[in-house]
Design brief:
The chain is about 35% helix and about 25% strand. By secondary structure, it is α/β, with parallel strands linked by helices. A hairpin with a 2-residue loop joins strand 4 and strand 5.
């Protein structure tokens, strides 16, 4: 296989956004008749590389070769002309048009200058039959399941391109049977010599379907290897960049008694998310580990009422409460610092002061408005406590650094005197100083008796401040680690699906 000429090759690809080097001399090859998986955590560079391979971005360094010849792609349509097609998680077709129309959009056969619908429908039926799909092509695309829509999108992409097929998270919304149906289609295309690039966060699917894997981390290629030479633990270790032969869990957290239960979640879940039970105690940090797409953020959103749970119950200090939306969560004493602070966290046009006081004001109600002096005092106290560096608390929060924005969001929730605080990747994308300050704040809040639920991709970090760690895999809590069990190696093994003997099943 390695002696074959690559259909598509990236050599020394560099991509820079401002001061950020998103790709640093990355190499990648797509061979005919293989499925090549591309893996990496958030920020690894996967999306940037795919956009360069398909023409959405142009590289700042390096070159692309198609069948050994250098090419320059202006845009995805240009890439399509070279035989490179892409199918995304969200099907990029027209749901209110027929299946046949979607398949031949922009290239409809005509008769006497008019679109020949009978011919379109005949050819569409013949085309889909090659994929084992017997459906009414006259029906709207939206009438069919996401799995069928994905196959239609693949059929269209292959017809338009026919050399390289990029599948970007195609199975994220599919059930197990639908995944296997899609994989049968992909295997058929592989057998016909198509080069297939497969991006996913489901490792079991990678081992089921792919021949080789390339792993990116922090914009650099870590490795390209045949999957036959690897196991799941190997892949997880390379993605996370961890030598798992050590542990850093502080002895102070290894024992001792737990405080009273502050929050209790029972049987929370929804479609695509396995139900879970979890109790978080006073003065306890429950850390959450798992790969991208494992369900970490989904759990946080269920806890905070952003997504409605299909059944289950919430208890705060032993009393059952209703949490069907974030307003009810705030009323119950919950705070939530989301992963994407720019999109879901800050109110960019509002001032630092307004961003800090807004949750407290909402909790008090607008008929009990905080006067300006109270706002200034509150913002000042939390800005000092968290070392928020702003020239003026009335300046727009969007002008602050990422680390200071994160501390503003944290200050917002501390201002409501929360019972329970959810932090989703609180140290991602911030400078070293702000990172250390956030970690110190987590430790201090734990010591002050707050109950915290902290999601982090940084294994050393989550090990350092967690009393317990729950491990997510395939949108399910699969293990819980406590005391001496808490170590990077145990986490990696649990993520990989091969937990050590000491790892325990999740305790309610």
């Amino acid at each position: 296989m390695t002696e074959q000429q690559a259909v598509l090759e990236a050599r020394g690809i560099v991509k820079v956004f401002g001061q950020h080097r998103a790709l640093d001399a990355v190499e990648f090859t797509a061979l005919p008749g293989e499925v090549h998986a591309l893996l990496g955590e958030n920020g690894a560079g996967k999306s940037t590389l795919i956009k360069i391979l398909t023409g959405a971005y142009q590289p700042d360094g390096g070159e692309l070769l198609l069948e050994g010849q250098p090419i320059t792609l202006r845009d995805p349509l240009h890439g399509q002309g070279y035989g490179i097609g892409t199918v995304y998680q969200e099907v990029n077709l027209l749901p209110n048009r027929s299946v046949a129309e979607n398949l031949f959009l922009g290239r409809q056969p005509t008769r006497f200058g008019l679109v020949n619908r009978r011919e379109i429908e005949r050819r569409a039926s013949e085309l889909l039959a090659r994929y084992g799909l017997e459906i009414d092509v006259r029906a709207d695309l939206s009438d069919y399941s996401v799995a069928v829509q994905q196959i239609v999108a693949i059929a269209r992409a292959v017809e338009l391109s026919g050399k390289v097929l990029v599948l970007d998270e195609p199975t994220a919304s599919l059930d197990r049977n639908e995944v296997q149906r899609l994989f049968d289609v992909v295997r058929g295309l592989k057998a016909k010599g198509l080069a297939i690039i497969f991006i996913t966060h489901f490792l079991d699917q990678v081992f089921d379907l792919a021949d080789r894997v390339t792993i990116l981390r922090n914009g650099k290629k870590v490795a390209t290897q045949p999957l036959s030479a690897l196991n799941t633990t190997d892949v997880v270790r390379m993605m996370l960049g961890k030598d798992v032969a050590f542990e850093h869990h502080p002895s102070v957290l290894a024992g001792g008694t737990r405080g009273a239960v502050r929050v209790q979640f029972r049987n929370l879940g929804r479609k695509g998310m396995a139900p879970f039970d979890l109790a978080v105690h006073e003065g306890e940090v429950v850390g959450v580990a798992g790969l991208l797409g494992s369900g970490r953020t989904e759990v946080a959103r269920l806890m905070f009422g952003v997504d409605a749970s299909e059944g289950g119950s919430f208890q705060v200090d032993g009393k059952t409460v209703a949490i069907r939306n974030p307003a009810q969560a705030v009323a119950a004493g919950f705070g939530f610092c989301p992963e994407d602070r720019k999109l879901d966290g800050i109110f960019g046009e509002l001032s630092v002061r307004e961003n800090i006081i807004i949750a407290l004001q909402a909790k008090l109600g607008w008929f009990r408005a905080l006067n300006r002096d109270d706002q200034i005092d509150l913002a000042g106290r939390y800005a000092e406590a968290l070392d928020i560096r702003a020239a003026d608390h009335d300046m727009p929060v969007k002008l602050l650094s990422g680390g200071n924005q994160q501390k503003v969001i944290l200050a917002r929730w501390l201002a409501i005197d929360p019972t329970f605080l959810i932090l989703d990747e609180p140290t991602r994308g911030i400078d070293v100083g702000a990172h250390a300050e956030i970690v110190r704040t987590i430790n201090r809040l734990r010591e002050e008796g707050l109950a915290l639920f902290v999601i982090s991709s940084e294994l050393d970090e989550v090990v350092a401040y967690s009393n317990r760690i729950v491990v997510m895999r395939d949108r399910e809590m699969v293990a819980e680690l406590a005391g001496d069990e808490i170590a990077p190696d145990a986490i990696v093994q649990a993520i990989a699906g091969t937990p050590p003997v000491s790892a325990q099943e999740v305790r309610p």
